[in-house]
Amino acid sequence: MAGSGKAKRGIPPKSDLNAWYPAIVEIADLVDKRYPIKGMDVWKPYGWKAMTLIDGLTRSQMRRTGHEEYNFPLLVPEDLLDKENQLVSHLKASRDTGIDASELRVDEEEAGFKKEVYWVKHGGDTELEVPMFLRPTSETPMYTMFSLWIRSHADLPLKTFQIVNTFRYETKQTRSFIRVREIHFFEAHTVHADQDGATAQIAEDAEIVQRLLHELCFPAIVSKRPSWDTFPGAWHSTAVDAVMPNGRTLQVATYHHYRDQWARAFNLTYEDRNGETQFCHQTTFGMSERLLGAIVGMHGDDSGLIMPPSIAPIQVILMPVAAHSDENVTPRVEALASYLQDSGFRVQVDARDLRPGTKHYDWEIKGVPIRLEIGPRDLASSQCTITLRTGGKIESPLEGISSTIRQYLDSVSDELRSRAHAHASELIRTFPGLSQTADIWKLDAALEEGFVYELAFDGNDADAEVLEKATGLTLLGDCAQPYPEPIPCAVTGKLTTRRHHLARMY
After folding, report:
1. pTM score, whole prediction
2. Which residue from 67, 384, 440, 495 could staple onto 486, CB 3.0 to 4.6 Å apart?
């Protein structure tokens, strides 16, 4: 999907993604990156509207699945972070040593988010008795309150979510939507009576993600992360990775099964039907503005953005043509705009006194799915001209225009899905294999930059390390879609249906 065309109005060609991406997010008026704190961009109206529409899709899924929206405080006291760090460090040590967490002495190593948080240590001129920090995520403040709310089995399941800003001191190179320090963050936290309930929630999270990705018109690789890449406070983690046009993967969603590990740290218990006290089981599910970053990178082209209709701030731009020669053109276009708005479409009229070509470029850059033009000749014939951002120009009757617009918006969505699936297929290749001579592992063929490699893998951590050292890539984990028939593991040679991917990640 990376274009090779010439730069248009300051847009580098998409084949140079490292130049195209940061240019387009500003030229298309999504954000302004000139705020004097690195990694904290200013959302502009067009970008913010697209993000709020993504949030709207998410909220719709939350309503469908019985989640309730909350809003927890931004500030968290230091002692709660210490509790989280102790838990995470304990579980990390358990995983690293292969010892059950219940049998391990508490480790004093700092883990979790402590090295990434922003601290607040003064209120005015007064030093705070207990330092506070800006939330990097919300397990700690939420679970503190959950332990006060949950008393009996009748209080379960508890299904919560919030859409808030979180803060992490990102030390790597920042990139709008992809790697930032102030994160527009969705997080769902649930509490269940037992492991089965939490496991069922993870399956529901997986379904929600697929519904959202369908609306956003791109596929993704879903992988159960390997043990060394699982969040230390989780029993297991599943990540959803989009394949960007340069072959790098972008993690756009994650869901964690915590079992009862966090409940034990926060004394989150309930009384069961027999009157006995039990520890709860928990899950989390997170997404961020990375979804918008994936949309920009996946669907855009040399001319600018292409917005999926579901989250396009403007779905239809209406343009009067040669209005100076017929005073009826502009009023007719404005009346049509009102009609389409009443029909549920997001529309705008562009009546600027500019050359048509200039207007066309502007709306191409912003990725508006449909451009609809009406001039004097169109009025005489009761027609209009429809141009699709994905390509194609159609002369269409004005009669039944609402149904026509809906049909073409659906066709734009279908075309974007088709392109995105083709793009992902082109960038995922079969791993060429490894050979061992003495103690040295070598690739059977050189890997090309800019691709994700698919392989069968059924080895242990040491075998995974062999793969990652030989390739310089990261093993994403067990793919949610295994092979239909067993094939040999790339390292051990054992037959397995376990499908994995090696990728360079953002």
Report:
1. 0.92
2. 495
Going residue by residue through the chain, which has 506 residues, state the pLDDT in tens, using 9 for 90 and above.
Answer: 444 444 456 789 999 999 999 999 999 999 999 999 999 999 999 999 999 999 999 999 999 999 999 999 999 998 887 777 666 665 665 555 554 444 333 343 444 566 788 999 999 999 999 999 999 999 999 999 999 999 999 999 999 999 999 999 987 889 999 999 999 999 999 999 999 999 999 999 999 999 999 999 999 999 999 988 888 778 999 999 999 999 999 999 999 999 999 999 899 999 999 999 999 999 999 999 999 999 999 999 999 999 999 999 999 999 999 888 888 999 999 999 999 999 999 999 999 989 999 999 999 999 999 999 999 999 999 999 999 999 999 999 999 999 999 999 999 999 999 999 999 999 999 999 999 888 889 999 999 999 999 999 999 989 999 999 999 999 999 999 999 999 999 999 999 999 999 999 99
For residue 151, is it within any domain? Answer: yes
Vertex 426 angle, CA 423 and 431, to 5°: 140
Rounded CA-CA distance 501/207 in Å is 21
Domain containing residue 43: 26-299
**Longest CA span, the chain:** 85
Indicate which CATH number applies to the domain containing 58: 3.30.930.10
CATH of the domain at 452: 3.30.110.30
Same domain, 286 and 383: no
Burial class of residue 488 (count of CB atoms within 10 Å of its CB; 0-12, 13-18, 19+)? middle
What are the tokens at 311? 């989250």
What is the C-alpha to C-alpha distance for residues 431 and 440, in angstroms, rounded to an integer?
18
Q: Are 222 and 281 in the same domain?
A: yes
350 Rama class: left (phi>0) / alpha (psi -120 to 50) / beta: beta
Residues 376 and 450 in one domain: no
Tell me: do 218 and 351 sit in the same domain.
no
Using only C-alpha atoms, the chain has a radius of gyration, in whole angstroms, of 26
Q: Domain check: are 288 and 321 in the same one?
A: no
Residue 414 lies in a domain: no
Residue where a domain stops, chosen among 268, 299, 330? 299
Length of the chain: 506
Residue 381: which CATH number? 3.40.50.800
The b-or-e profile of 452-482 (16+ CB within 10 A means b, else e) is bbbbbbbbeeebbebbeebbebbbbbbbeee
